[in-house]
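One thing: could you explain this record?
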Amino acid sequence: MKNVKILCVCGSGTVSSAMVANKLKEKLAKHGYAVTPVEASPNSVESALAAGGFSLIACVSPVYKDYGIPKVNAVGLLTGLAEQQVIDDCLKILNAK
């Protein structure tokens, strides 16, 4: 298993980021990735990123600033629509590292 750290950014609270975090852990484990998710609200992205070591940012709310870390729109993990596309986008980023 490859260890990866993913910042999960929710809409405003923590419920959606927790859902995204759990789905990413489950789905990416099937592809050989052990995910350490860190949940954050849009206002706490910078402080969460200060810990370092992130492979990507999975966003439910847009993160407009460029932090030099690839971003994936993770709304599909909440809606169930285009869920596989979100996983494919994550895998494309992770497999390139």
Remarks:
- The two ends are 14 Å apart (CA to CA).
- The chain is about 40% helix and 25% strand.
